Amino acid sequence: MCESCGCQGQGSFKKEIGVIEVNQRLLAANDAQAEFNRHYIEKLGALSINLISSPGSGKTTLLEKTIDALAGELRIGVIEGDIETERDADRIRARGIPVVQLTTGGACHLDAHIVHKGIRTLETQLDRTGLDLLFIENVGNLVCPVSFKLGEHLRAVLLSVPEGSDKPAKYPKAFMTSQVFLITKTDLVPYFDFSMEEAEREATRLNPGLEKFRLSSVTGENFDAWVGYLRNLLKKYRNILKD
Ligand SMILES: Nc1nc2c(ncn2[C@@H]2O[C@H](COP(=O)(O)OP(=O)(O)OP(=O)(O)O)[C@@H](O)[C@H]2O)c(=O)[nH]1
Ligand SMILES: [Mg+2]
After folding, report:
1. What is the distance in A from the centroid of ligand 1 to the CA of 186?
2. What is the pLDDT of residues 105-164, one digit of tens each?
3. Average pLDDT over residues 67-90
4. Residue 175 · residue 33 · CB < 8 Å
5. Least buried of 58, 168, 198, 236, by fewest C-beta within 10 Å?
6. In the chain, where are the structural domains located?
């Protein structure tokens, strides 16, 4: 599916030393670009959050509801990542928010180079006051996006109730490299055999520092806590930048 993400042959598969070296060089180049992006985003004044999940876990819907809650108060920008179509960007644009759609044409993740182009394009839509929050919605995939830093300050991994509470244990890296864990579609708990406790216990075992939220974009459950978290985070981030 994707030649650049290094997912072929990791783990117990054997592979040629040359391929390993090429992958390592690609990731090192990506890391350097990600670092550049982070500084660039900081110059815009923004805190950036990379959203990672399986397809359809509710990333764009979460963004829509978060925008509804914060748009009058904070300046929000969005970079959308998908294999094809402008559909997610259209949904964000309908809320009057600066947005850029990046399409990878087949690759299963965003990388720092394409995100840099996205940031430069987004910049042309901003007024001189800059941004507070920049959300980057990654391509729907719990595996490939994990290895690629984009320049984000924070990674949030989403797991929706229909996917099953065993997923943190089965896809550990997504949970180990994130700072925030969002269980989404909690309104569907009565219809699925999903254990919040199992999902959170496994995720916390992998990454004890994870911030956890149980959200429903349909009922609005715990959105006040999520939005309050974002406000506080931005405040802390601004204080750090000042020092
Ligand atoms: N019941 C319920 N459905 C939801 C919730 N959030 C999103 N959905 C539905 O889940 C489907 C997928 O939502 P999206 O927000 O498009 O998911 P996504 O993660 O952005 O999908 P990709 O960008 O394709 O990876 C849509 O039909 C949403 O209406 C929720 O909290 N509860
Ligand atoms: Mg989406």
Report:
1. 12
2. 999 999 999 999 999 999 999 988 889 999 999 999 999 999 999 999 999 999 999 999
3. 97
4. no
5. 236
6. 17-242
